[in-house]
Amino acid sequence: MTEPKIDSRRLWDGHMAMAEIGPSPGGGTARLALTDFDREARHLFRRWAEEAGCAVRVDGIGNIFARREGEDPGHPPVMTGSHLDTQPLGGPFDGIYGVLAGLEVVRALNDAGIATRLPIEVVDWTDEEGARFGAGCLGSNVFAGRRALDNTLALTDAHGNTVRGELERIGYAGPKPVGGFPIDCFFEIHIEQGPILENEGIQVGAVEGAQASTGYWVTVTGEEGHAGTLPMALRRDAMHGSARMIDAVVNVAMDFDPHPVITVGHLRVRPNSRNTIPGQVTFSIDSRHPDNDILASAGAAMRAACETIAEDRGLELEIEQTSHRDSVVFDPGCVQTIRDAAAARGISCRDIYSGAGHDAINLSHVCPAGMIFVPCEKGVSHNEAENAKPEDLAAGAEVLLHAILARAGRA
Amino acid sequence: MTEPKIDSRRLWDGHMAMAEIGPSPGGGTARLALTDFDREARHLFRRWAEEAGCAVRVDGIGNIFARREGEDPGHPPVMTGSHLDTQPLGGPFDGIYGVLAGLEVVRALNDAGIATRLPIEVVDWTDEEGARFGAGCLGSNVFAGRRALDNTLALTDAHGNTVRGELERIGYAGPKPVGGFPIDCFFEIHIEQGPILENEGIQVGAVEGAQASTGYWVTVTGEEGHAGTLPMALRRDAMHGSARMIDAVVNVAMDFDPHPVITVGHLRVRPNSRNTIPGQVTFSIDSRHPDNDILASAGAAMRAACETIAEDRGLELEIEQTSHRDSVVFDPGCVQTIRDAAAARGISCRDIYSGAGHDAINLSHVCPAGMIFVPCEKGVSHNEAENAKPEDLAAGAEVLLHAILARAGRA
Lengths: 411, 411
What we know:
2 copies of one chain form a homodimer.
Chain A: H1 8-19, H2 36-51, E1 55-58, E2 64-68, E3 78-82, H3 96-111, E4 120-124, H4 138-143, H5 149-153, H6 163-170, E5 185-191, H7 196-200, E6 204-210, E7 212-221, E8 225-226, H8 238-251, E9 261-263, E10 267-270, E11 276-277, E12 280-289, H9 292-313, E13 316-325, E14 328-329, H10 332-345, E15 349-354, H11 359-363, E16 369-374, H12 390-408
Helix pairs in contact in A: 1-3, 1-12, 3-12, 8-9, 10-12
């Protein structure tokens, strides 16, 4: 029996070619969803998939499915994939690895002349990062029925462009419907985006589940005034109050064990002029923890801290919860398949928990799903310095290949 | 002898007409320097000045001089004026009042058929607010020889447009040189932009001097990372550190008596994405105090506070001083002329200190200068809600008229 083999060089070169599409100033990748760069990356993936013999289709939210037919075309496919969009200052691996590793599995099966019983589909999910239209995982959310299609198509970016308009503009508004067909299972492979695997010298993580996550917008309203004339005692300075709130909100993480992760990543000041006391500040809070109840308690503590400061400073406060995802436990069968594939290939593996949101979390609501992590340099991600080792990417793809083969079956 | 009389209604209507040029969303004025709106306001002022019989000229930095000739054309003029540009979210009085009150003085003299011995010039100084090109009082600074013309013309806005290019675009790049001719004296009338006159029920302030002022840019550099995966203990969160610094910097004001005023008005976050730990934050500090030495001490305290926090949080820190103005004492003769004019008209007057920067401060370095303040509602300025009473504006203009007459002399 021929043994399929991951081509480490081909996998790495694919990442480097993709990274040339939307290079960022500091040597990373800046490829926001549904931009011209995203179009170019999608075109390249489609071309590679077609060259590998796949049939490519696009759905109504722009998700791209590259299908390697199975001996039994009527059977639900084994699906794998991730996303080609990046953060405003991102790297070449976050998401891209999951798409290109899926493609490498198809190529490796082709090279070894192996047919499978079940079809295999490699997917590029639309706008996982959520850096442009104010919400993330758009493609997989709609696919899994967790967001309405029309509502998602109507989301706008900072310039008023809609998802619908941008999909049409770049030529990736496929025919409806989105989702609604059976899937055998979904595997997503991804860089860890944290330091655990690298610190422990382990090549693969079998992801047991993902953290709960809650997002907020906080709006602090005071009163604008002249920076040179309004005495300190009479000020209602929205920036000063917000600074205290941000410090307090981040510090809430230290009150729980294990710590949740709490991030204030986005902030807008109005009018944002150096000689005017800010009248309004809006900032985001991103909070995550494996335990739903602890996360809710942290949310209440953050809210209370902001309210105390607002009252003390005479500021108006509005806190809007903009997103929430309960913690997710992946399908134990899928997780075991991953552990077994690693063990069979002699690749070091440990169980791990995901801190980030991923498309696989949405898929876990409509089919058995699992994730594979590989180390990335210093755990750095969402950063232009994001990096990973070719041999770790290849080892992870090897595990993905054998997990997929275990589910799809040799014909 | 005919008595000249300020036309309160005409003065008020002029403000309302100007306020229609560049209306802001919240009912104020948004007329940044050298925009299409600024051009329109300049055109209107020029037309009104010419209708009042003035000869209008423009200099190389776009300052507009409307001259009412004197019996002795060779004598240095009595000058008055302020600026027509506004903050991004400003009101209809800050600066505009100083230009329109000067014009009203000319009209009142015309109506009463009064010639003066000295010429009178009403000036619109270019870009006082400094909200677009990163520095303020451009026109009066260059006029007084306190900024180089070429360097000022080369300043750029956030879109890379230069002062030179924008002056040419709106048709207000006059012939060089700028300044360099003798001036008898300069009076500027302005809303107080603080609460003192209103609180005390006094109609006019004779401004004795202006506070010292120092501006800084603070850049805090940490490391970007994924909001969901990087443990709190491993973060170098530039936003969290900056929040602590902003709180500490503003609190420094409380350590000195009387308090300096300290404002963090402008802030930029990089990459400003809600699910990325900020890698860099840049913020402005505006600090002012009547005493140069106390302001320097406050500057040192702010720097020390930021350094302590940066060290504690493992962040890199850069503090750049971007502007400094020593405190200014206005010409005692000009101040006395203002006090006398108010007393002669039975208008309540008190001595006052300016918290804000004004074009008159620059002029005080090249000629005797003084300022007149009038109350504004709740002391609010640099705010769309900025407001003033027609009768206060008229009373101030009355004092300006008689101060100018005292210097220019009846022919």
